[in-house]
Amino acid sequence: MSIRSSAAFLLAAGILGGGLVPASGAATPRRVLHVTVEGPISPISDDALRAAIRRAERDSFAALVLQIDTPGGLETSMRSMVKRLLATSVPVVAWVAPEGSRAASAGVFIVMAADVAAMAPGTNIGAATPVNLQGPMDSTLARKAVNDAAAFARTVAAQRSRNATWAEEAVRHAVSASETEAVSLGVVDFIAASLPELLEKCEGRKWSRRGDPRVLALRGATIERVNPDFRQRLLAVLADPNVAYILLMLGFYGMLFELQNPGAILPGVVGGICLILALFALSALSVNYAGIALLVLAVVFFISEVKVQSHGLLAAGGVIAMLLGSLILFERGAAGVSVGLVLGATAATALFFLLVIGAGIRAQRSRVRTGRLGLVGQIGTVLERLAPAGRIRIGDELWNARSEQNLEVGETVEVVGVSGLTLAVRPHISEVKP
Fold first, then answer.
1. pLDDT at 9
2. Virtual CA dihedral for 280, 284, 286, 288, nearest 10 degrees?
3. Distance CA 84, CA 186 (A)
């Protein structure tokens, strides 16, 4: 067989086998996975990053680009994200963009944990001092929180050969830097106005894992974007602790009103939906189960107050349990429900039950006005002589009546008892002669 015939045979075999034989030495097209981290750092951000890293590692992407615009967020979620960035086998490029974006507070740590850090024109980074959303911390707790965050910032900066001194200042003194200042200070590597420019400037930059130095080759790489799924979008809205708390309270109130008035339907439907959404949101937050237990106990006390005459003791216990449960609902170190919202919800609940209990006590003390007992004490006028039986008028109603003494027509009588459809009466006190 000639050389020309052999070449023709190999070409035909390649076509029949499912495609042309690739040219010798042809490189596989490089791909970059692009993920946007926008809004407060939360368990949703951590979940999205985890999924992106897993996909980048599984599908052998050349790099993972994190486009960041965040005011900060939960410390627990930030630390988890930093751990993932430091441990992944895929090079990570953090890019604060677009123009006008920022990487504040928790965003500082995430940017510094990337192998390559860049910023778009008109962006800023910094102000990483820890705060407690549940209220001011005492001096000891504040000092411990700041020292812990500063040590972590120095560690992350040292891992990526960045300016550890500035990272500590961002924590201790809440300093910030523009994009040009960040480059001159060694906080980020360069400025990039667009994604293609970012990949171009990453070309040839060194990165390493576990002491193994490598070089980025991203020029001309194909960009694949990760879009959040419905669950992530929904959780992004619900994962705010204040929103989750409001939904939880609405769910409890709906269940309470439905149990108090069976068959009302609407409170049960609304309460059930809000309660399920609240549990869905709490599944993405650092929740203290003792806080949930106290809130459930508060609802039990409130329901019992409606059914049992405790003279307000159960309602008072419910208010205390609600207040304590709301304050410890989220784990220490995580964002919590604002104190104003907790006090407002507790005060509204206490006021509601004070009104309900007050109305109940007034109703118990008032004279019965309906039914058989409601007739006792009523004043009427004799229409037919009671000797001892006859008829009387009470308001617009005519009743058969019986008296132990004879009473004449026109006399005023008072009802003292009811026997079937016959009233037992006696002369009204004003008619009794001395």
1. 40
2. 10
3. 23
Q: Give 404-427 pLDDT, tens digit per residue.
A: 888 888 888 888 888 878 888 888
Q: Which CATH number fits domain 371-431: 3.40.50.200, 3.40.50.300, 2.40.50.140, 1.10.579.10?
A: 2.40.50.140
Taking the model in full, what pTM does it have?
0.63
Is pLDDT larger for residue 373 or for residue 40? Answer: 40
The residue from 144, 161, 206, 208 that is catalytic is 144
Q: Which of 80, 105, 326, 403 is catalytic?
A: 105
Mean pLDDT in residue range 2-17:
41
Which CATH number, 1.20.1050.10, 2.60.120.10, 3.30.70.270, 3.90.226.10, labels domain 28-228? 3.90.226.10
Per the annotation, the verdict on 105 as an active-site residue is: yes
DSSP string for residues in 304-371: HHHHS--TTHHHHHHHHHHHHHHHTSB-TTS----HHHHHHHHHHHHHHHHHHHHHHHHHHHSPP-SH
pLDDT, tens digit, 9 for 90 and up, residues 155-211: 999 999 999 999 999 999 999 999 999 999 999 999 999 999 999 999 999 999 888
Q: What is the pLDDT of residues 328-338, one digit of tens each?
A: 887 654 456 77
Cα distance from N-terminal residue to C-terminal residue, the chain: 148
Q: Is 42 a catalytic residue?
A: no
